[in-house]
Amino acid sequence: MVSLSPLQGPSTHQLLLVDDSAINLDTLLATLENIYDLRVAIDGQSALDLIDSGYLPDLILLDIMMPDLDGYEVCRKLKANEKTADIPIIFITALDNDMDETKGLELGAVDYISKPFNPEIVLRRVKTHLELKQHQNHLQKLVNAQTQELIEAYKDLKQIHDQMLQQEKMASIGQLAAGVAHEINNPAGFIGSNLNSLQKYIAKLNEGIAFMEQTLMAMNDPETETQLKKMKRKLKFDFIQEDIDDLIVESKDGIDRIALIVRNLKSFSRAEDDTLKLTDLQECLESSLSIAWNEIKYKAKVEKNYQELPPIQCLPQQLSQVFVNLLVNAAQSIEDQGIITVNIRQKENWAVVEICDTGSGISPKNLERIFEAFYTTKEVGKGTGLGLSICHDILQKHQGIISVASEIGKGTCFTIKLPMDHEEINCKSSLLQKSSSS
Ligand SMILES: Nc1ncnc2c1ncn2[C@@H]1O[C@H](COP(=O)(O)OP(=O)(O)OP(=O)(O)O)[C@@H](O)[C@H]1O
Ligand SMILES: [Mg+2]
Q: Does residue 2 register a pLDDT over 60?
């Protein structure tokens, strides 16, 4: 049933003529064939089949009165299809009452051409609607491009907003941390010093008790001896003497942990002195290694590859804290025995320090969170989760970069890059600026 006749014309516009009348088609072809690229369908279904096969014309001239599927129905189907809904349709009709025209326009047609055709009018209407469609396409492209720009701008804004929220959050955490550190510091200090005195007093008390016991024994008074033994048993004296030392050692350990947390909280809130110094990275790293040595010595062999670098301007105390945090993390990640590799080298204008371990590694899911304040996978009492967030903040202050690569079961490598020639360090981190300004 399909009559397909791709007739080449000089225009790149493709027109589909749908009409069951050969005379009408002849007239339309004669009018349009030298200007447009034409195809013909002799009934509604053939037109739909042709379009279904992938042919998408720029404009359709559609007869209304056709057997089986009339022009209205074809139009309805084309408008209901997302792919063809935008193709302009001009109805061809011998009907000339307003009702029919209104119906066609309501269905989405752009215009009417009445039979018998006036070639001039056909040409003008086709040309006008093709131009309109072209403008419409152009406008659509502009709208799409601008919508895309808006989407990008919205994404950027959202990112900035999220960053600001994060900064606010960090600033409040910083203030909170500083407050908590201050409040805990004093009582922790006197508890620690009292425990030391207590340990000494108890040692003296024990010595005195032992002396008194020996003196009583020397008196050779069986009744007093029995009473003494009875009293010791009743009071569980031997057990108390043994346990009291353990209790004090444990308590001192606890207070040491509290002191460590306070130190971490303090540096997290930047309640520390910021003095710029020309620093030898090797020396800084060596002193950090000796600070962290207690954690490392039973766990890992340390391999060092140091390249000679000129001294760099930095905050040595804080940089040392970064190294200590990374070294302690590395040691803690090693379950039994492993290797910690420490490298110093220069890459372009960066001083690069790498601290790598053969420890447990970090899963990709956890890797996303390790720089967050208070994020820890360590058991209660072992980690505050502040170490890496402090490192990150200190590196930001130095306009440096900290990055990490890790593989579960193989180990982790932290890379620190410090600019070798920046003139001034922004001594106050954004966190501190926020905290102090609010
Ligand atoms: N070298 C490493 N190997 C494996 N996991 C690591 C390593 N370094 C950090 N992590 C992971 O990152 C988490 C966060 O580290 P971070 O130093 O911030 O806190 P923490 O070590 O848990 O506690 P804190 O340092 O405050 O004592 C750790 O709990 C651990 O899961
Ligand atoms: Mg840590």
A: no
Distance 189 CA to ligand 1 centre (A): 27
> 171 CA to middle of ligand 1, Å?
22
Q: Is the CB of 410 under 6 A from ligand 1?
A: no
pLDDT digits (tens, 9 = 90+) for 36-62: 999 999 999 999 999 999 999 999 999
Ligand 1 centroid, distance to 87 Cα (angstroms): 61
Answer yes or no: is the C-beta of 338 below 6 A from any ligand 1 atom: no
* Residue 137 CA, ligand 1 centroid: distance in Å: 56
pTM metric for this prediction: 0.49
Question: Is residue 329 in contact with ligand 1, taking CB distance under 6 Å?
Answer: yes
SS (H, E, C) the chain: CCCCCCECCCCCCEEEEECCCHHHHHHHHHHHCCCCEEEEECCHHHHHHHHHCCCCCCEEEEECCCCCCCHHHHHHHHHHCCCCCCCCEEEEECCCCHHHHHHHHHCCCCEEEECCCCHHHHHHHHHHHHHHHHHHHHHHHHHHHHHHHHHHHHHHHHHHHHHHHHHHHHHHHHHHHHHHHHHHHHHHHHHHHHHHHHHHHHHHHHHHHHHHHHHHHHCCCHHHHHHHHHHHHHCCHHHHHHHHHHHHHHHHHHHHHHHHHHHHHHHHCCCCCCCCEEECHHHHHHHHHHHHHHHHCCCEEEEEEECCCCCEEECHHHHHHHHHHHHHHHHHHCCCCEEEEEEEEEECCEEEEEEEECCCCCCHHHHCCCCCCCCCCCCCCCCCCCHHHHHHHHHHHCCCEEEEEEECCCEEEEEEEEECCCCCCCCCCHHHHHHHHC
318 lines ligand 1 (CB under 6 A): no
pLDDT digits (tens, 9 = 90+) for 58-83: 999 999 989 889 999 999 999 999 99
Could you tell me if the CB of 59 is within 6 A of ligand 1? no
